[in-house]
């Protein structure tokens, strides 16, 4: 046993010493051990991400022609970007002073999950604070030309999102918006677009402010919700691309990561609708007093039957029931607890007269019951419920009343809601319970191809990197082992052999112990008993030549039989053995062999 444990310990020690060195070799590292200091020399790292052709994916800040954009910022040039954006110094005027200020913290920095260090974004660092920041467009978007409006930007909710938004506002062109330090929730905007969530309420905002062509009033028009629930961007902590496409034919598309999630027309998919109804209810029209809207009425000619009893109960006592003979009507069901004692601190003046708590009457447990006997209830065959006259058609029914229609004095028909208020700035005005919200690659253009090309150099490249990095667990594992599965398989077998051998050894040992335990429960001769008997016989033969004394094992067997006094036959045998001095060796050997199993049991029990 000690040899086995020593061998296993030695083998495990060898694995621990050689294994790490073998592992480092397999993973592409060479480790030198010098005076207890481990120095790791890494081979050249493989490309972290490659395209379909095996080329390494490398990010560079996109180069663009400013003439193709009304606004563009990739935030990588921090100094230039910070000159574009203006942090709000305003205060909200409808809340408490201590939380009215726009004091949210903005920062230009790389994402927490760094893809490329030179890919910078605009990050909202604070939470539970009002935050606002805005930038002027390079050139206003006027909606006058026959060109679409494309708004596109990235959002990464690095800490997820439980309650808050990450939408943007396209600020209307007017004098009130010239000073962006005053940007707040009341600042006029033309379009609000982007994701928002609070609890289970998930939205993809697209709101535009429509100007009434008759009286100049402004109304917010809210786009209907997408059919699909867009939950992933709020919890996967990955970059997502939001795109709004607004065309001169009044159609729109909302895309998430290039996939269309909502589309339709400005004339039909918004609440309230852009154009009011041609007719409205006459506010002066009133319903006549004699207008009867009841379709059915109780039959006035119906009469309640004479045998109909409205007061009949649904259940009555069973008239055939008889009180059991052993029912004790004079015995109460509950009696004062005879073992209860009045508390020592009971004050009659304060607590009133003390009464022992009630307990079940023990007398009632041995009979059918105690107290006043009542017959069990059964259904009343005469019960019919309250009588009501049957319903008939109302001869005076005139239908549902509705006010008459009149022309809508505020009716207008705007067939080109695309022509909205011009846009001069873009702003982000948020209140969020989550921080670390990263905005990146915000563009406003009138060319969809330009937007697609821009995203291919930014968002698409980034997501390819992430997808390549975490495609499947297998790919991640293969990359971790430096794409040398053969060596790792060999190492696995190398480690498994001693481990498997040790497990097999434990199994065999447990099996042998179970067999020995079973042998203790029987007097049958076991395989090891024959060998033990032979060994004892040899010792007996040697001992007989040197000493005529009787074997101690025989005495043990006789004593174990009940410590009884030896009978005459046994006494005779003892006397003969003493006289003969060991002359009957063969007979003694047979006797010793026949008593061997009992001797083994006695020794086991004694131990």
UniProtKB/TrEMBL annotation:
- What segments bear the compositional bias annotation Acidic residues? 526-535
What is the name of the protein in this document? Calnexin
User: Could you tell me the gene encoding this protein?
Assistant: 106085563
Q: Which keywords appear in this protein's UniProt record, sorted alphabetically? A: Chaperone, Disulfide bond, Endoplasmic reticulum, Membrane, Signal, Transmembrane, Transmembrane helix
Query: Could you tell me which species this protein originates from?
Result: Stomoxys calcitrans
Quote the biased-composition stretches of kind Basic residues, using this chain's numbering. 596-607
* PANTHER family xref list: CALNEXIN 14D-RELATED, CALRETICULIN AND CALNEXIN
The UniProt annotation puts the region (Disordered) at 267-323, 516-607
Q: Does the keyword Disulfide bond apply?
A: yes
**Matching Gene3D superfamilies:** 2.60.120.200, Calreticulin/calnexin, P domain
Report the SUPFAM superfamilies cross-referenced here: Concanavalin A-like lectins/glucanases, P-domain of calnexin/calreticulin
Q: Where in the cell is it found?
A: Endoplasmic reticulum membrane
Which InterPro entries does this entry report, sorted A to Z?
Answer: Calret/calnex (IPR001580), Calret/calnex_CS (IPR018124), Calreticulin/calnexin_P_dom_sf (IPR009033), ConA-like_dom_sf (IPR013320)
């Amino acid at each position: 046993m000690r040899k086995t444990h020593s061998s296993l310990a030695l083998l495990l020690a060898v694995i621990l010493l050689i294994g790490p060195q073998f592992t480092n070799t397999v993973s592409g590292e060479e480790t030198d051990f010098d005076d207890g200091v481990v120095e790791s020399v890494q081979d050249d790292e493989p490309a972290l991400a490659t395209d379909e052709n095996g080329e390494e994916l490398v990010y560079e800040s996109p180069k663009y022609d400013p003439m193709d954009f009304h606004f563009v910022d990739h935030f990588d040039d921090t100094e230039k970007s910070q000159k574009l954006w203006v942090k709000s110094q305003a205060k909200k005027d409808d809340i408490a002073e201590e939380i009215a200020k726009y004091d949210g913290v903005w920062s230009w920095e790389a994402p927490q999950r760094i893809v490329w260090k030179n890919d910078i974004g605009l990050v909202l660092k604070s939470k539970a604070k009002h935050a606002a920041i805005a930038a002027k467009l390079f050139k206003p978007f006027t909606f006058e030309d026959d060109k679409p409006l494309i708004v596109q930007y990235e959002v990464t909710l690095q800490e997820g999102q439980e309650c808050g938004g990450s939408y943007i506002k396209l600020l209307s062109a007017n004098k009130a918006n010239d000073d962006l330090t005053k940007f707040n929730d009341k600042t006029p905007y033309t379009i609000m677009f982007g994701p928002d969530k609070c609890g289970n309420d998930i939205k993809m905002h697209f709101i535009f402010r429509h100007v009434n062509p008759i009286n100049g009033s402004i109304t917010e028009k809210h786009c209907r919700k997408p059919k699909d629930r867009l939950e992933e961007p709020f919890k996967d902590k990955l970059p997502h691309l939001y795109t709004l496409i607004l065309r001169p034919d009044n159609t729109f598309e909302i895309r998430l990561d290039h996939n269309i999630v909502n589309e339709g027309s400005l004339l039909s998919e918004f609440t309230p609708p852009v154009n009011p109804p041609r007719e409205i209810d006459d506010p002066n029209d009133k319903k006549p007093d004699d207008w009867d809207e009841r379709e059915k009425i109780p039959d006035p000619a119906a009469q309640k039957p004479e045998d109909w009893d409205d007061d009949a109960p649904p259940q009555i006592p069973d008239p055939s029931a008889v009180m059991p003979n052993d029912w004790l009507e004079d015995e109460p069901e509950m009696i004062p607890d005879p073992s209860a004692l009045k508390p020592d601190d009971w004050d009659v003046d304060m607590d009133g007269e003390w009464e022992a708590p009630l307990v079940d009457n023990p007398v009632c447990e041995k009979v059918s019951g105690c107290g006043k006997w009542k017959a069990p209830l059964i259904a009343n065959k005469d019960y019919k419920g309250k009588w009501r006259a049957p319903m008939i058609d109302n001869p005076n029914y005139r239908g549902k009343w509705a006010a008459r229609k009149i022309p809508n004095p505020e009716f207008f028909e705007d067939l080109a809601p695309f022509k909205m208020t011009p846009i001069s700035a873009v702003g982000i005005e948020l209140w969020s319970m989550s921080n670390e919200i990263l905005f990146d690659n915000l563009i406003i253009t009138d060319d969809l191809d330009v937007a697609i090309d821009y995203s291919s150099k930014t968002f698409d490249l980034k997501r390819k990197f992430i997808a390549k990095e975490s495609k499947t667990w297998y790919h991640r594992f293969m990359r971790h082992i430096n794409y040398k599965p053969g060596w790792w398989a060999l190492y696995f077998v190398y480690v498994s052999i001693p481990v498997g051998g040790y497990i097999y050894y434990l199994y065999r040992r447990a099996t042998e112990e179970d067999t020995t335990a079973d042998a203790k429960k029987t007097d049958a001769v076991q395989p090891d008993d024959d060998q033990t008997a032979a060994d004892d016989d040899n010792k007996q033969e040697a001992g007989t030549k040197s000493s005529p004394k009787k074997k101690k094992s025989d005495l043990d067997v006789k004593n174990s039989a009940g410590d009884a006094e030896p009978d005459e036959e046994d006494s005779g045998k003892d006397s003969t053995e003493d006289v003969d001095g060991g002359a009957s060796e063969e007979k003694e050997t047979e006797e010793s062999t026949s008593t061997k199993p009992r001797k083994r049991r006695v020794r086991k029990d004694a131990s």
